[in-house]
Amino acid sequence: MVCRELPRHQKDPIVKRHQSGEGYRRISKALDIPWSTVQIVIKWRKYGTTVTLPITGHPCKIDEKTRRKLVREAAKRPTATLKELQEYLASTRCVVHVTTFSGILHKSWLWSRVARWKPFSYEEKHLGLTKFCKNTFEISQKYVVKSVTV
After folding, report:
1. Residue 91 and residue 51: Cα distance in Å, rounded?
2. Rg for the chain (alpha carbons), in Å?
3. Which of 9, 33, 133, 138 could join 144 via S-S bond, C-beta 3.0 to 4.6 A?
4. What is one Pfam family matched by this protein (predicted)?
5. For residue range 41-83, what is the model confidence (pLDDT) as tens digits?
6. d(CA 122, CA 124)
7. 108 contacts: CB under 8 Å, gap ≥ 6
8. How many CA atoms does the CB half-sphere of 92 hold within 13 Å?
9. Does pTM surpass 0.85?
10. Cα–Cα distance between 130 and 125 in angstroms, integer?
11. Residue from 13, 11, 19, 72 nearest 37 by CA
């Protein structure tokens, strides 16, 4: 079911007819609109206006555009720390606490800011393994080289 709000030029005649003493059913028949729609009068009685009011609650600290920008930057640079991302946000004139946008990243399934795994060079790995094998096991050098290269 689609919820469509009436424009202001249709709301105001409903309120005027109600002020003149007409009931909901007469107004709905005269203007050819549903009876439940005529209940806009309830809103007028409560707030004194038929204009759509803003939503309730505390406004978001980061607007949607900045949120998308932050998520894009964090996905592009997975090695960036939270402090670096905070500085990046500060450059876009959005100053928030680290925990605020840490929660935003968590909601976007970007969990931790971890440095990329860097493999050792082959020579360092080979030397480390041969040293370990010599110290730990009493095996010939020929066998060690064979097992490391495989």
Report:
1. 37
2. 34
3. 133
4. HTH_Tnp_Tc3_2
5. 777 778 888 777 777 888 888 889 999 999 999 889 888 888 9
6. 6
7. 71, 74
8. 16
9. no
10. 9
11. 11
